[in-house]
Amino acid sequence: MAHLVTPGPAALAQHMVRMRLALMRNSLRGDNASNLYTGVSLGLILAFGTIAVAVLWPAYLPITLAVWLSGWIFGPIFIGGGNEALRPEYFSMLPATPGRIAMALLAGAFAGPAPVVNLVALLSLPVYGWRFGPAGVLIGLVAAVATLVTMVMVSRVIVALIGLFVRSRATAAAVGILTGTAIGLCSNGWALLVALGGSDTAVWSEVLVRALPSGWGVAAVEASWPLALAILAGNAGVIALLLAAWSALLSRRVVSAARGGVPPRRGTPRPFPATSGARVAAAKELRAWWRDLVRIQLLATAFAYAVVTPLLLVTIDVWVMFPFAGLIAIVMAAASSANLYGADGTALWLTLMTPGAERADVRGRQLAWFLIVGPAAVALSLAGTFVSGETWAWPWVLGLLPALLGGGAGVIVLLAVTSLVPGTDPHKRGGNPLSTGADETAETSLAWLVLVAVPATALPTAGAILLDPWAGIATGVLTGVLCAWGFGRIAYRRLESHGIELLNLMKHGPAPKADKPTTADLPIQHRIGVTVCYTIAWLPLFPQGLVPMVMKIIGIQDRSWFLALHLPPIWQWPTIIFMIALGLLMYGYAVLIPMRLSSSSSAATTR
Amino acid sequence: MPTHQEPALRTTGLRKAFGEHVAVDDIDLTVPAGSFYGLVGPNGAGKTTTLAMAVGLLRPDAGSAEIFGVDVWRDTVRAKGLIGVLPDGNAMPERLTGREVLTYLGLLRGLQPDVVAERTEELLQILELDSAERTLVIEYSTGMRKKIGLAVALLHAPRLLVLDEPFEAVDPVSAATIRTILRRFAANGGSVIISSHVMALVEQLCDHVGVISDGRVVAAGPLADVRGSGTLEDAFIDLVGARAGGTEGLAWLTS
User: Fold this and answer.
1) Which among B58, B96, B255 has the least Cβ separation from residue A284?
2) With contacts defined as CB-CB under 8 Å, which chain A residues touch B169?
3) Domain boundary pick from A222, A255, A288
4) With a cut of 50, which residues of chain A have pLDDT below it?
5) Distance from the A245 Cα atom to the nearest Cα atom in chain B, whole angstroms
6) Rounded CA gap, A309 and A312, in Å?
7) How many domains does chain A have?
8) Range of the domain at A586
9) Within 13 Å and on the Cβ side, how many CA atoms surround A123?
10) Cα angle B163-B165-B167, degrees, rounded to a multiple of 5
11) Same domain, A224 and A84
């Protein structure tokens, strides 16, 4: 027998990088390619923005870099484990130490677009260092590389920790609560900053952003030579620690057999209810919710966000959001439930092979979602309105509650069958219990679509409340029932006619038709335009349009960062209307341009 | 009105292409009612694709499929009532236990609760899945997945069973049980189609065989006609134009 020589660390890392690049090359088709191109263009815009911050507003560089770090930390949690193109399981039989494999996997992790884009952003450090002379540039360069490695390592360790420790409902919910809180802080954390000492850059916040791993580079650049070297050496030490932790976590992961995010159970499950149709499908679905850590985590995220956001505003004594916590929870829970069929994978075949089961399945899923989200949302709404003492909010809460619940129950099944994002079948997923293997970009856009669509179903109710508070409640109940019934009906009809196509989308991926255009075939300027619009259209629409509108209607004086409210009164309404129109226009452009492309080409290819 | 004289399955001109690759090219198959039909072919020959189109799980580019005279694509609901299917590699309601899967699907099909409970109990016992009472399907082994899939196919007592690789990864004892169940089903007038790579098994079980290669039917008919005087394996290797390799190369493995 020939003697086997394991490749050395450098060779192993080189193979890993090649494999990662080969995987990326092979997946660069259709929408994947367009997502990558647009993601990279957008990332580069942000990266050059960061360099611009270093040149023009250096005081804000540490906080900008902290945002990049938070992306590395919360990105993988939010999108379910991050992109694990190279799964550690693939290499578990290589005759090499875990440490060596971890090093090689790390090298593979850098062979992607995200670290490259991030490195460009970190070039802001040597740019900032220029202010301190050539030595500053040199330290900045070293710090840029060290910070990049630290950020990627932190991200990997967090993914590994989740993969290993999220094995129970409690830990899944904890991760969900953490994520929900983080999203809440990202969107409304400014309130906390205001409460803690005004918007001026207080000393403690200066220290905080430099104490974070993202700020060590800035600290090193600003420090004297010996201190700078000490900071860089400390950073290297942290990297070594992270690497050791990661390799330990990886070697535990590949030998732990748990899969599919199943929480531990005790005892024999309760017997299935002896019923039929939608109710038996709902019983199946309720069990799926209770026994799937991904769903538990997403639900916890939704409710945590809904509770944290109003609480943050309470710190500056704004109680206006408090009654609406339950409503926010409904919309967020709908957004995290939008890929119901994609999450179950090819199990759809059984629904399709059972005569007449499509209707029962759709109605059952609606019923289960309603039972899971409804009671908690109602309790949260009633308690929130009562505690806040905002009596004016009662008609809004009571009217919008049924409207949104029904709208949510309708929209999620409609989108689940019309915009399904295929993932990996649950029984074939890897060692990360929170990853569904679906294309994260597509899943995120689906969630955004729900965030727009569900509130839209409540617009008639909002209009009715403005006319007559109590007519709003009747309208809310009516539109809620109509949405749940009507959208559900469209959904199961669609499942009956197109279920086979959905099944094969999940089984074989999108049909490889050479003449069917994808977003990737859009001219580059449209491709970038569509992505940019999808990404930032919420800014004018929600925080700069709808929120100041509500505040003006209700008569809240706090102007915070709402542009319209800082303008002379005569310009306020036009600005608000302009912002809403701009947001809607951007969403319209982002949705319609790809649709026009596919319809024009399908007309051209129809024989 | 379908009668017992109609073939259990008849496909006419079935065709399916995935991009440039033509997986199934103009397949005509007739499975007589009451027969035990074996569909054999090399890896990638198009067996799974053919069966998926025949039962209504994959839309063909061209051609049609009838089950006891009922068109699968025009009268879908009635056709689905006649067949029990075990596809290869599809997911199940993964977060239910085996008993829950059978109960759920039985109730969903509109069977009476007591009938569902009785059949579920029997199927779990016979297929030796009753010990895994607390195990969710997602935690099942490959062989257990096959067995619960088979139980799902049998649950509503269909007239035609279409089973894609039913013996793959199943242990010898369970395989013997499944063989006995299928033989009893066929002996009592049921029709069975299985796909398999294992020629000896097909020879032992089936009375009719269809050989598919490169998406085309290269031979079909009663077992005796297809295999001629030799074994099915010899006839198969002859038909698909392959030769058994393995004697050349790999010098490093034996040195």
Assistant:
1) B96
2) none
3) A255
4) 1-2, 81, 513-517, 601-607
5) 29
6) 5
7) 3
8) 516-607
9) 12
10) 105
11) yes
* Same structural domain, A358 and A446: yes
Token pair belonging to B210:
């269809």
User: What is chain B's length?
Assistant: 255
Could you tell me whether strands B36-40 and B208-213 are parallel, antiparallel, or unpaired per DSSP bridges?
A: parallel
CATH of B9-242, one of 3.40.1350.10, 3.40.50.300, 2.60.40.1730, 3.40.50.2300: 3.40.50.300
Query: How far is CA B121 from each of CA A382, A521, B113, rounded to the nearest angstrom?
Result: 46, 55, 12
Distance from CA of A498 to the nearest CA of B (A): 10
For residue A149 the two structure tokens come to: 């490695």
Q: Using alpha carbons only, what angle is made at residue B237 by residues B235 and B241, rounded to the nearest 5 degrees?
A: 115
* Residue numbers in A near B119 (CB within 8 A): none
By Cβ distance, the residue of A262, A426, A512 closest to B18 is A512
* A297 and A437 part of one domain: yes
Q: Are residues A325 and A197 in the same domain?
A: no
Residue whose token pair is 């001629």: B228
* Predicted model pTM: 0.78
Chains A, B: CB contacts within 8 A come to: 119
Question: Contact A262/B95, CB-based, under 8 Å?
Answer: yes
Q: Which chain B residues touch A360 with a CB distance below 8 Å? A: 108
pLDDT digits (tens, 9 = 90+) for A501-528: 889 888 877 665 444 445 556 666 677 7
A284 to B92: CB separation less than 8 angstroms, yes or no:
no
Q: How many residues comprise chain A? A: 607
Of A276, A349, A357, which has the smallest distance from its Cβ to B87's Cβ? Answer: A349
Residue from the list A291, A354, A501 with its beta carbon closest to the beta carbon of B105: A354
- pLDDT band, very low/low/confident/very high, at B148 (cuts 50, 70, 90): very high
Average pLDDT in chain B: 87
ipTM of this complex prediction, to 2 decimal places: 0.88
d(CA B50, CA B11): 9
Contact B102, B124 (CB under 8 A): yes
Angle in degrees, CA A467, A468, A469, rounded to 5? 120
Domain ranges of chain B: 9-242
Q: What are phi and psi of A268, to 5 degrees?
A: -80, 135
On whether the CB atoms of residues A406 and A479 are closer than 8 A, the answer is yes
Query: How far off is chain B from A534, nearest CA to CA, in Å?
Result: 31
Q: Hey, is A93 helix, strand or coil?
A: coil
Among candidates B192, B140, B185, which has minimal Cα distance to B36?
B192
Q: Is residue A331 part of a domain?
A: yes
pLDDT number for residue A31: 60
Residue A458 CA from chain centroid, whole number = 24
Determine, for residues B103 and A260 on separate chains, whether the beta-carbon distance falls below 8 Å. no
